Amino acid sequence: MKRNLYLVLIMMFSSIGFSEDSKGDESKVICLVSGEVIEGDYKEESAKYKEGEVYFCCGGCKMDFEEDASKFSTAANFQLLATKQYSETNVCPVTGRKIKSKKEVIVEGLSVGVCCAGCVKKINKSNNKVSMLFSDSAFDKGFSKSKPKSNKK
Fold this sequence. Notes:
By secondary structure, the protein is of the alpha+beta class. The chain has two domains: 2-86, no CATH class; 88-145, no CATH class. Helices cover 35% and strands 22% of the residues. It is built from six helices and eight strands. The chain has helices at 2-13, 59-67, 73-82, 117-125, 129-134, 136-142, and strands spanning 17-20, 27-30, 45-49, 52-56, 86-88, 103-107, 110-114, 143-145. Strand 1 and strand 2 (27-30) form a beta hairpin. The chain is elongated and about 40 Å long. It starts with a helix and ends in an 8-residue tail after the last strand. Mean pLDDT is 83; it is low at 2-26.
């Protein structure tokens, strides 16, 4: 049973966040429960999560999330960053150290800053990069709610 759950999670994490449209000019949000592209208005089915909102392809996925959000926290954290509701801080999500000379890794199409080449190497060796960078503990270290953009002229 656990093995099957891990396989489902790995498949899900490999397609979370955004997907390129067939035209290549538009990104689509991916349901954090099913892993499917959300058709139409992705904000139609949503739930509050942390200080943001996460999106689903259908009411069933939303209900699964609301039943036990902890099962989907890594995927939800990734989606918060992918939808730009959260952004990077100046702290490495791996070590919790301040980033002085930013190194970057690309995970599922998103660039994430880390503190050193050692963290880059550790992430690149990992079998589950998404979990390593977007688990609740890593997310709380390296990401925070995005500040609203002001309309100053």
